[in-house]
Each structure stands twice: as C-alpha cells, then as structure tokens.
Batch of 2 targets.
Target 1
Amino acid sequence: MIVFENVTKEFPNGTVALLEVSFHIEPGEFVFIIGPSGAGKTTLLRLLLRELKPTSGTVQVDKRDLSEIKKRELPILRRQIGAVFQDYKLIDDRTVAENVALVSEIIKQNEEEIDEHVKEILSQVGLEDKADLFPSQLSGGELQRTTIARALAAHPKIIFADEPTGNLDAATSWEIINLLLMINKADTTVIVATHNQDIMQSLDKRVIELEKGRVVRDTKKPRQKKPKAETEKEKTKPAKQKDEKKKK
Ligand SMILES: Nc1ncnc2c1ncn2[C@@H]1O[C@H](COP(=O)(O)OP(=O)(O)O)[C@@H](O)[C@H]1O
Ligand SMILES: [Mg+2]
C-alpha cells in the first residue's frame, strides 16, 4: 500500500533529511517510526502527503507514484491519509464538532449527514460530551482526540500520527495510543512517529527506526508476507476474482 523505494530528500540548503530510505507498509499494519529529533520522521509524512517531493527515489500509495499525481488530484490523496500532528493544528474559533465537520463539508455531505457523521466519529473517540467546546477549553488528551476525529472524518485508509503523544503525560499518552490501536483494529493502516520508547517497547508492533535520515532497523515480521503456497493458489483463480482481491 505504501512503498518508499530508495528515497532521498535533500533540502535546498543542503540538509539531507532522508537517505536511500526503502520500506513497504501493507494495508492494515500498525507501524512505529522512531528516531531522535531531526531523524527524518516528519519528512516522511510530508512526502506521503506530497507536500514535498523526493530528490530521488519513489514514494507510492496504492501503486500510484506520488510524483505523477496532478495538482487537482492532491485533495484525493490527502483525504486517504489522515494526518495527526503533535501540535494539533485545530481551528481555534471553531468548536470540536465544527473542526471535525470541516472535512465532511469538503467531501460535500449535506447538513444532516454531516451532523450524524460528526456525532458518530466523536463518540468513536470518546468526545461526545465535548462537541460544543472550543479548543482552548480542552485538555491535551482531548485536543489530540479531536485531531484524530478530524483525521477519521474523511474515512482515510491511512492514519499518520506525527508524535501524537509529544505534549501529553504518560497516562494520557496511553489513552491516545489505545485509541490508535482501536482504529487500526477497524482496518485502518496506522503509522505512529514517536520518540516515546516506553510505549514502543511495550507493544509488539513493527518498528522502523531512523537515524540521521537512514533506516537503521526494520522489524517487519516475515509472517506478514504471504506464504508461497497461497500465492500459487491465487494464480489459478479466475482473473476476475483476482482483480477484486487487488482492489481491497
Ligand atoms: N524545510 C526544511 N529545510 C531545511 N531543512 C529541513 C526542512 N525540514 C526539515 N529539515 C531538516 O531535515 C531533518 C529532518 O527533519 P524532520 O523530518 O523534521 O525530523 P524529525 O521529524 O524526525 O524530528 C532535520 O535536520 C531538519 O532540520
Ligand atoms: Mg518531527
């Protein structure tokens, strides 16, 4: 689903943020991207959102090379990837419900549908009681839940949370991670960039570690690949069925 192939990103000032980075992330995975500040984690997210283009190498989402995506197609790409930021990036003079509704408005639902949709998402993240509050009236954990709700509003295939627990205490951090795990169980691919070692070490999830822009560790488990026998079987299936499989 997500493919980085030999991706190097050098900024105009000469800083090399990523160097020959390669990995594949399959649909439904939960992956930690770890590494100290400056390792290149946010640059990965910005490449996925096509806010940046690689200097060399390719980034693909669902087999589409992002460097070939036209400007007018960018909103479609960005709706597929729900971004959650450490500093929330909420709109201060809009309520929780309005912040979440903005995305639904963009995807042109009618008012009733939007109300229903926002209610449903807020209850999913445990914020049904906070719908009419403004960001300044929320705790850090509630702010982060709001940004997750906003990310979910467009029904993304992927959630990329960039240091979602960076401003939170340990207990609240776990609440947010548990919420992301729950979202992952509902079949959304979840990528969490973090330097929270405690959380990463207590969960048996794939870890991609960056150091100065290079991948120095990837714990991708071989069992996530399809066994050969299954691949053979698929080859003998009628073509139509095969196509349906691909679409998923
Ligand atoms: N727009 C930019 N121009 C120049 N250098 C940048 C820019 N954005 C990020 N960098 C540099 O790229 C490196 C990786 O940054 P970043 O991806 O933000 O790391 P992380 O999110 O892991 O802290 C850092 O050295 C950072 O200073
Ligand atoms: Mg960062």
Note: The pocket of adenosine-5'-diphosphate (ligand 1) is lined by residues 11, 13, 15, 17, 35, 37-43 (CB under 6 Å).
Target 2
Amino acid sequence: MGKIEFANCQDVRNQKKIRELDCPRCHEPGGIEAFVKDGILAEDGVCDNCGYILPEGTELEEVEYEALKGIPEKLEL
Ligand SMILES: [Zn+2]
C-alpha cells in the first residue's frame, strides 16, 4: 500500500528521452531515433535509412564519436 505513488515518482525521474542520432554506418543525419536514459540507449535504435541497429546499452558518447570518425577524408588525387 502506498508503494505505487512512490513508484510514480521514480518513473518521472527516470523518464526516457528520444534522441535522433546520426547513423554510424550510412551517416544519415538523425536516421536513428533512440530512447536514451542516463546517456545510454534504453532500447535498440534502428536506422530508418539502412536498417543498422544500435544495440541497447550503447553509450551516446560512443555513437557520437563513431559518427565523427566516420566523416570521409578528402582525397586529393
Ligand atoms: Zn543507417
């Protein structure tokens, strides 16, 4: 009894946020809609463009770093 109210308070604190992430594979900007909680993916995120799956538990920083690394270098021929 009374525990339900307490649980609701916890839910508000731990709410998931939706973040649009650039896909690490095809680099589609905002291609992956991810549920993020405490900087970590709370659910698998799937790229709308290529179907790439970011697994649950992936850290956002990791994804953003990968996306930066993936920028193609200019090739001078
Ligand atoms: Zn993709």
Note: DSSP finds two helices and five strands in the chain.
